[in-house]
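Re: the multi-chain job from yesterday

Posting the exact lines I submitted so nobody has to dig through the queue logs.
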Amino acid sequence: MRTIAYRDALREAIREEMRRDERVYILGEDIAGYGGTYSVTKGLFEEFGAKRVKDTPLAEEVIAGAAIGSAIGGLRPIAELMTANFSLLASDQIINSLAKFHYMFGGQSKLPVVIRMPGGGGAQRGAQHSQMLETMYAHIPGLKVVMPATPYDAKGMLKSAIRDDDPVLFIEHELLYSVKGEVPDEGEEYTVPLNRGIVRREGTDVTIVTFSRMVHLSLQAAEELAKEGIQAEVIDLRSVRPIDLDLVLDSLRKTNRVVVAEEGWKYYGTGQGLAALIYEYGFDYLDAPIGHVAGKDVPMPYSKPLEQAALPTRDDIIAAVKAIVPAPAGAGAGA
Amino acid sequence: MAKALDTKDAREAKPPRGSADSSNNSGDSIAAMLDANGVLTAEAERAANISDEELRTLYRLMVVSRRLDQEGLNLQRQGELGLWGPYAGHEAAQVGAAMAMAPTDWIFPYYRDFAMAVCRGIDPGAIMTIFRGLTHGAWNPNEYRFAPFIIPVGTQVPHAVGFALGCKLDHDDTAVLVGFGEGATSTGDWHEAMNFAAVFNVPLVFLCENNQWAISVPMRQQVSGRIADRAAGYGFPGVRVDGTDVLTVYAVVRAAADRARRGEGPYLVEALTYRTQAHTTSDDPTRYRTEADVEPWKSKDPIRRCAERLQARNAFDDAFAQAVSEEAEQRALAMRQHLLSAQTPHPASAFDLVFANPPESLLREKAEFIEALEPERGE
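And the result, structure tokens for all chains:
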């Protein structure tokens, strides 16, 4: 398999689906000739033209609202919001309209809308430009919220999202766009389901449940832990709503210990929700309290050293694991 | 673009009537149809060529709608409905605008546009089942080209713009009408949608039903200047019309829709009327206005004004009035009977339709709910 970047994988997914289905079109700010703020839509305007690649006025409410209206008319819009932070402007349309219309319309209008947006910190974008807001949307019945971590999943899940008849919020991460990974050749058809997590690394001593960019830090942490004789299983949820709880519980039955690792804030967030589900459905299998690695409880600082202090790290995950996993016999002797 | 799947048949049909203002392609031709009071001039009325029969149809639909509104109020007062939002005073705006659109056109209503739904041929009894909480979707939006009522003020306006954008991508002849009150024109959604509609030159008629009250806030505290003038700031025309004169609304909206269909872009019609009733049955207007405030508008009652127009054309007599009145009574009774005989849904159906493709977790939750509801089934 060839190796391509996350942003290129997203672009291939959009291009292939636009070729496959004429009802698919994209709209958003700076997505046409400019190619998108993160270069995801580069070249699509040249191939598909102004009718199907629409630069819009700078107005998130109407970008989301117009996507909804055109979907009621039978089109399959992909709206790009420049960042998840700006999606707050569109959140009424997303939560009060997009999430509700299939229900409120008695199932008579489908809403095959994909809203793409990057979240996350680490690029010194400051407090208003670095947030992980998936929790807000994952809380709402009627929305599917996916956060792929690899180029393979980015392409396969975006194709699934475009084909899905329900609204899908597709949350990328600013620091993932340049991450490279193996992806089948263009035109070699595959999709990745919107409701399945995946075991990224098998282990027996603890399960690290994570998603988005934290998958990569968790895998690094697992490698370090292995050197000390702790075998961590790493689960990439891929989708935070719906959540593949069965996969998590299966792993828990094997390891009896769980660390939840996320970039977002600790309180009332995705990680706490996940931990509550594990307590509710897997309490009997737990041999230790669930560990929780999250971002510091502050607005994201703009200052680089402060931002690094606010973001969860590989070492935070290692520490959280060690806090609940007994030291292996002879640990430290030969490492 | 390909034809949209769900609306393919609707989009393929051609609008049945020609242009109402074919003499002039500029938006100003619509403003030129009106006198200083926003009423259709005699010359424009002749040019619009609206037959007596068409006007009688508008009268009939207004009388029926007024009676259904009263019945809605009665049902709420009798404890049969949770809430009712009266639309008395809006009949000319709603009936005139809805009937001005071709049957193949789409309408995106706001929550008060009940009479528009009646004009589209949707069974009023079925609509009322929504207000009684018996169903979510009482009609198929694609069948009637009528979107469901929207509650958060102004949010339907971006939807209408997006739908109209889709019509343009499809290269078809569909025009779109979106209804809203004057309060909605204060929202960001409305302004963003106005701009978006203009930038993409979409086939959309904005209809402001300005009833001068947003619950307790009067027009002068809601809007500085005139709503119709807002359109110019976005680069397209708009007019304020006498929203109690159905003939004027009908002619102007028809001209605006024809203009949109010709590819000349959006148009804003501000229909000035008055909310003679409460905002909804949860509202008490005596807390913010007096009977003296309402009184002047009673003489501008849309139904009376239409009757006067018909009388001036010698197209109104007692037999017609009686027949219309009887039809209204029959339809109110039918609406009541439909509503009161409709079945209460099974509680577990609350889980249905959250998604087109529901996740397993939701199906599991539903199964657990049913089991808790009817334990014997689980044994």
